Amino acid sequence: MTRVLYPGSFDPITLGHMNIIKQAAFLFDEVLIAIMKNPNKSNHFFTMEERYEIVKEIYEYLDNINVIMGEGASVDVALNNDCKAIVRGIRSGKDYGYEVEMNQMNLDISNGRIRTVPLFADSNYQFLSSSMVKEVYGLDKDISKYVHPLVKQKMLEKKIR
Ligand code: ADP
User: Which 8-state DSSP code applies to residue 125?
Assistant: First the structure.
């Protein structure tokens, strides 16, 4: 059985992330989504717990897609959860350059045990990012085209509170 880890901030999860998850679930037996604590990103929209609950609810009906919260090095989270590789989404040359470096570092710090499988964003999601969703939402524009209905609902609930 091949389980792979898909780590990220997912603040919030977008249809772009979900496209990568679908691709990974087609290729591997199980996809473990890891909501990672990122000490470099301090101004979050959703808390770690909120992001975890949202992703969990979205994929509740699928046995081969699961979610955890993680911190520290993604390679350690992968090794501790019996994942064979890390999956990352590539939208552009910018993502590519970053992921090439990350793959090298992850191989190094895991002593060659964990490598990255890059998956390419489908063209309609190529320009989609969590920060863009937050920006469009902040402008009071409709985000239905970019996120799962549950994400939209949870974002709107924040505004009302
Ligand atoms: P991080 O903060 O680690 O970059 P993100 O939640 O922003 O985490 O993204 C997690 C992964 O999903 C990364 O590999 C990122 O490149 C990828 N990704 C983000 N948006 C998209 C998208 N629209 N299409 C494909 N991959 C994406």
Answer: G
